[in-house]
Amino acid sequence: MRVLVVEDEEFLADMIVSGLRRAELTVDIAHSSRAALDRLRRDAYDVLVLDRDLPGLHGDEVFRHVVEQGLPTRVLQLTAAGPDGLQGPGADDRLIKPFAYEVLRDRVLALGRRARSDRPPVIERAGVRVDTGRRLALRDGRPLALSRNEFGVLEVLLRAQGTVVSGDELIEEVWEEHPSYRTNAVRVTLGTLRAKLGDPPVIEAVPGAGYRMGVGAEPGGGGGG
Q: What dihedral angle (degrees, nearest 10) is formed by the CA atoms of 131, 136, 141, 146?
């Protein structure tokens, strides 16, 4: 589950992020609305923990971006106590400050389950098609015999819609028992997955960043890694 925390109070933001990472969630942080908008344009998130009362560009603008772009991201709004805190656009859930961390964690987990249940069961890019309900994967109509981890990596990359996914994020999303981030588990799995997908390559390595699903490259392209 991927979560973006948007909170300008750094101590509170760090507390939330640290707690959610202890719950084995993949968490990014933004301290302003503009930083949050950059993240949302670049990456896909299951849940957005959004402080409404941000300085400069108001948090409501971030919420409007989620709605206008039709993002599947569920929004947990953090707001001040009092009648003003209950105004504004309706998020999926809302917490009044101050709050207990355990309550926030449980709300985030619940929203994440809802976000995942809303995901389309069939996703496709560059001639690669994955049916998550039936656990089928095809390349140009050709069935692919994939292991559990290969199928999971392919699904994560497809859902990222061409944005970069790091090796750490793949481990968090796919592996049931997380191997050390220093192992070559991701590299080995990607190697066998690429071989099964065949040419032209569609999984690209982005040096120093991770991997992404391209739109198809000439044989021999797609980068190493």
A: 130
For residues 88 and 135, what is the distance between their CA atoms, to the nearest angstrom? 41
- Check: CB of residue 22 under 8 Å from CB of residue 69: no
Kindly state the percentage of the chain with pLDDT values over 90: 36
pLDDT of 105-134, one tens digit each?
Answer: 999 999 988 766 666 678 888 889 998 777
Query: pLDDT of 60-99, one tens digit each?
Result: 899 999 888 878 889 999 988 655 544 555 688 889 888 9
